[in-house]
Amino acid sequence: MADLPPLLAAPASAVPPIDKTSDVVLRVDSAGKLSDIFDSVDYTLADVRDGEAEVPRLLVEAMPDDLRRLGSLDLRKDVFFNALLPLVLRVNEDIRHDRDRLLALQRLQRLGLEPRGEAAAWLSALSERYGVADGDIDALLLRVDVVPPSLALAQAAVESGWGTSYSAQRRNALFGQTTGSAVRYAAFERLIDGVASYARNLNTHPAYAAFRAQRAAQRAARQKLDGYDLASTLTRYSSRGTAYIRDVRAMIRGNDLVELDSARLAADRAIGLPAAS
Predict the structure, then answer these.
(1) Where does the Mannosyl-glycoprotein endo-beta-N-acetylglucosamidase-like domain lie (predicted)?
(2) CATH fold for domain 12-91+137-260
(3) pLDDT tens, 130-166?
């Protein structure tokens, strides 16, 4: 069970919008149908790992409730990871957009130019969302950063039993989030809301300061963010401590998830699907 902070009401801007014209929202009631959709657009993790394909912008609203009834564990894994990867990348896309804007403001600030008007208002709102002193760009850059897909996918698989747990199926909660009580789990309208909440918790809660510091150190060393390495900082994520870390790392290693850290979303739809299926 994850030791996450209470989920507070967040401004709408804290939740990634999913109404971009390039995004396709999928409402699918069976794992078989979802697998067929992935096959129809030639979306396979093998191709993504090899760098031969971008990830289609298919945003699944909820895990199919018959996921546990898939006869093959390998097929269940594929459906689960295929469904979750675009959501993680979509949340990271919004975070990266904010980070890029912060970096631009930081460069201007070093030239002696302080943000004004709309830029100052945006910076103030972002500071409030991430819980730092108003306008402290350096502090924000420690928090406004992406979560490596390998880490997110592994934690979700461990926490949700490949998307088959009650919280995953009925609450769209894949990461074991609680609402401040050890027995009360969080619920989300859509899977992407749960993914955004997970990223926000890693990026803001004091329990995960070591995660943010290690990520910043990787950035400073101009290294690729390493989900396997960063997993070692999350001993407070679960009451199981180091045993939990071993499980997450085994999940990353056993499913070659590090190779998905370079995955990228397709620039546009271009897959012949309607906006909702």
Answers:
(1) 147-256
(2) Lysozyme (1.10.530)
(3) 999 999 999 999 999 999 999 999 999 999 999 999 9
Q: Where are the alpha helices (DSSP H) in 111-254?
A: 117-130, 137-143, 149-160, 166-171, 191-204, 209-220, 227-230, 242-254
Q: Where are the domains of the chain?
A: 12-91+137-260
**Directed axis angle between helix 73-110 and helix 191-204, to 10°?**
50
Specify the pTM.
Answer: 0.88
By CB neighbour count within 10 A (0-12 exposed, 13-18 middle, 19+ buried), where does 216 fall?
middle
Ramachandran angles phi, psi of 44, nearest 5°: -130, 145
Furthest C-alpha separation in the chain? 62
Say how far apart CA 186 and CA 62 lie, in whole Å.
15
